[in-house]
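Hey team,

Filing this mostly as a record. A colleague (T.K.) asked me to run one chain through the structure pipeline before their review meeting, and I want the input and output archived in the tracker in case anyone asks later how it was produced. No errors, nothing strange. Just documentation.

Input sequence:
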Amino acid sequence: MLAGLVTTLALVPEVISFSIVAGVDPMVSLVALIVLAIAMSILGGRPGVITAAAGLVALVIAPLVHQHGVQYVLPTVVLAGVPQIVFGFAGLARLIPRSVMTGFVNALGVLDFTAQVPHVLNVPWLAYVLFALTFAIIFVVPRFTKAVPSPLIAIVVVTVIVIVAHLVVPNVADGGPRRESSPASPPSPCR
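Output structure:
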């Protein structure tokens, strides 16, 4: 149960960063995360199945959102998923050289990094202190106990500090684009 909680909490910044890359309101991505987490809890994971937000989707969806709006994201993802399922059953992944996959993943990492850099610049100095505290907890706590995952302890401790001390630091509602094509609430699939 703790591992599931940590995984869910780790996915929150991931989907937010991908929503920023895609140009989608982060709140829409958080709803998608909830649906993903529930679906994966019911269906379970399998080797080779991505059970988290995929950076590739964010990069492909970005031009679509910019040109046509967020209402086309769901149909596009569903239509793009069908060929992937067919390719998976056909075993076509074996035909792609490892160097191509490594290059793709590295390029994706560079694109994600460059998309997130502006969001760590010009933030209050306190955000950097909390960031350092989070990493310290993650790396020091396992030396004393592994009963509770250290990332979970870090998230709880830093969150409590921010709430109790009434610290003003950037949060999910502050980040990400708000465009005319990105409504404040998730799009209805019936539109």
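Quick notes for T.K.: The chain has two domains: 1-119, 120-176. Residues 107 and 132 are 27 Å apart (CA to CA).
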